[in-house]
Amino acid sequence: MSGYNDGRGYGKQNLALVNYSRRYLGQLARISWLAPDIIASIMEGTQPVDLTGRKLTRANAIPLDWPSQRTMFGFA
Prior knowledge:
Elements: H1 22-31, H2 36-44, H3 53-58, H4 66-72
């Protein structure tokens, strides 16, 4: 059985990523390492007021250690 192909060489598992730029996907990858409590705060809407999606996706050099992330984004 051959896999799904959309005619442009993209398989089914990659279709969701086709319309996003490499830069944007890189930005999303960086924020995927956020501390769980920061993510929970964002989901609950209790994050610091100046912590916006734009600020998160444009942040450079997000530290991997969670205490430094809390400081960087105003949680500490």
